[in-house]
Each structure stands twice: as structure tokens, then as C-alpha cells.
Specification:
This protein has helices at about 15-25, 30-35, 45-60, 65-75, 90, 100-105, 125-135, 145-150, 155-165, 190-200, 215-225, 250-255, 270, 275-285, 290-305; strands at about 1-10, 75-85, 110-115, 140-145, 170-175, 205-210, 230, 260-265. It is of the alpha/beta class. The protein has one domain (about 1-10, about 65-305): Metal-dependent hydrolases (TIM Barrel, Alpha-Beta Barrel). The chain has an eight-stranded parallel beta sheet with strand order 1-2-3-4-5-6-7-8. Helix 1 (about 15-25) runs antiparallel to helix 3, helix 7 runs parallel beside helix 9 and helix 10 (about 190-200) runs parallel beside helix 11. The chain is globular and about 50 Å long.
Length: about 300
């Protein structure tokens, strides 16, 4: 079975729009970097205006449930992760609640798995982890330190990590470069994954985006800790074989020592590319047949306890 470990935001109009509006409207630097001709916003009013415009535009782009599941079928994807995040305390914008993710998962439990959001600044963060797992049935959580204004080794994050470790659910942690002009560029460096994995040895950690451009460091950290994984989200697999792309270590170690620790993820909304095309790009990589099967699904199923 092919597993798209992190396909994108839960495809419900308001939840989808809130997720897209953060990236393309609220985060200074993202719309400017990916949008081409925009200059960095200089005032809060300008940021608010861009957030509103991005939200309204995204409402119209949200796929229907049928269209979303159809995209998965076209890519031969048997299971896909959908998610929300929670960072209102620092960014000051609304986010979709975990209940919306749980409701969507219940419509197709054999096809989708849900990952929730937790705001580490909230006093009830640890209790919210328990509620999302035990009451809502979510399978893990997505955290973005650069959006939440915290380093991964901050004590506020530790409360969340500790509960996830105890409950046996993975944390999907943003790693690698971020384009926000309001956050340090190296908040996602693998050294923080190393610190968290050392403090919480039984915590299942997924380093989203494989920490590019620090991929070699990420491979070494993954090799050091048996419960650390990397995913391919937010990057085109077709670029991995290009000279000086920075992905050489992923192909080297991911095809051998770390073959059991790489997860396919499309984040198709960010890339604007159908999941089927990204699956095809993975299949074109110079991987051993058994490794290909692991990257495209076997590792994810084992991590989720569905193997």
C-alpha cells in the first residue's frame, strides 16, 4: 500500500482556507518568496489584508471530499494523512480545531489518518494531547516551532513531547529552512531533533522536510536515534538526483542504513502538484525495489501500527 504520510490540510473549506491563509498571508516572507513579485509586508495592516485575501481565495480552491479521495486513487494511495496546526498564541490568527480533523477521518477511516495541532503556549496543552488521542482518535500531532515562537527544546514543547511519548503517538516536527522573516532561519536545524530525541528516547519523531538544506546532519541524527524518521514533504523528489541539490545524503543513507526511516509525503497543496505525479517522481529515484516499497508505504504503516 502507498501511504501519503502528510497529504495536506484537512479538506474542509474553512479548515483548508485557514491553513492556506497562514502560509500565503500571515507569514511574512512566504507569500513573497513563493508568490514571485510581492515585496515583504511592512505593517500589521498589510499582513492582515493579505491574510484575508489568501483566506478568501483558498476557500474557492478547497477540494471536495470526493475530489480529494479521487486524487488519492489516481496516485494509487491507500492511506493519507490530513492535519491541522495550532499556533494562535503567537501568530494571532485562528486555526482549525482538532475536532474538524477527527470528523473528516470518520468519513473515510480506511483512507485517511488524522494529525492534530497543539498550541504549546496554552496551559492545557498536555491535556489537549490526551483529549485529541483518547477522545477524538487522532494519530499524532504537527508542530512548527518557527510558527509557535519556540525552539523545539523549550520546556513548553517538552510537555507535549512527554504526553505523546507516553501515548505512543508520533510528533511531526517542522525541520529545515523556513522562509518567515519573523523567525530565525535555523529553528529547524537537526541539532534540535537530536536534543529532543535524547530527552525523549521513546518518542516517535518525524522530521518534516528532512531538514533541507541540512540533510546530511539530519541523516546522522536519524542514524543516532531509532525512533527518528524523515519525510519528503514540501520538496519535489525529481530534484533529489540533481548535482549539488543537497539531497545526496538522503539517497545514500536512505537506500541503505536508513531505508526503514524515510516516509513519502506529498503536501500537494504547497507544491501545487497532484500526489500521483509525486509518487511517480519517487518511483524514478535510484532506489532498490525493497527500499522503494518501504519509502512509499511500508515504513509509514509500521510507524502508525498498521503493518
Amino acid at each position: 500500500m502507498i501511504v501519503d504520510f502528510l497529504a495536506g490540510a484537512v479538506p474542509r473549506p474553512e479548515a483548508f482556507a485557514l491553513s492556506e491563509a497562514v502560509t500565503l498571508g500571515r507569514l511574512r516572507g512566504y507569500a513573497e518568496h513563493f508568490g514571485g513579485k510581492l515585496s515583504p509586508a511592512r505593517t500589521h495592516a498589510e499582513v492582515s489584508e493579505r491574510w484575508t485575501a489568501a483566506h478568501d481565495e483558498a476557500l474557492a480552491r478547497c477540494p471536495s471530499e470526493q475530489d480529494f479521495l479521487g486524487m488519492l486513487d489516481e496516485g494509487g494511495i491507500g492511506l493519507a494523512g490530513v492535519y491541522t496546526e495550532a499556533f494562535g498564541s503567537r501568530l494571532g490568527v485562528p486555526t482549525a480545531g482538532n475536532q474538524l480533523v477527527a470528523d473528516f477521518v470518520r468519513t473515510a477511516p480506511d483512507k485517511v489518518v488524522g494529525f492534530g495541532g497543539i498550541d504549546p503556549w496554552e496551559p492545557d496543552a498536555a491535556l489537549n494531547v490526551d483529549h485529541a488521542v483518547k477522545e477524538l482518535g487522532l494519530s499524532g500531532f504537527v508542530l512548527s516551532p518557527f510558527k509557535q515562537g519556540l525552539l523545539p527544546d523549550d520546556p513548553r514543547m517538552a510537555r507535549v513531547f512527554g504526553r505523546c511519548e507516553a501515548l505512543g503517538v508520533p510528533v511531526l516536527l517542522h525541520t529545515g529552512i523556513n522562509w518567515s522573516l519573523d523567525a530565525a532561519y535555523d529553528v529547524g536545524h537537526p541539532r534540535y531533533i537530536d536534543a529532543v530525541a535524547t530527552a525523549f528516547p521513546d518518542l516517535k519523531l518525524v522530521a518534516l522536510h528532512a531538514a533541507w538544506p541540512w540533510v546530511e546532519d539530519m541523516m546522522m541524527v536519524t542514524w543516532r536515534h531509532e525512533n527518528v524518521y524523515v519525510d519528503l514533504s514540501a520538496h519535489r523528489p525529481r530534484t533529489f538526483t540533481r548535482p549539488n541539490s543537497g539531497w545526496e545524503s538522503l539517497l545514500q543513507f536512505g537506500n541503505r542504513q536508513l531505508a526503514d526511516r524515510v516516509l513519502f509525503a506529498s503536501t500537494w497543496t504547497l507544491l501545487g502538484v497532484p500526489p500521483a505525479d509525486l509518487v511517480a517522481e519517487v518511483r524514478a529515484l535510484p532506489l532498490k525495489d525493497d527500499v522503494m516499497d518501504k519509502w512509499l508505504g511500508g515504513n509509514a504503516l509500521r510507524l502508525l501500527g498498521r503493518d
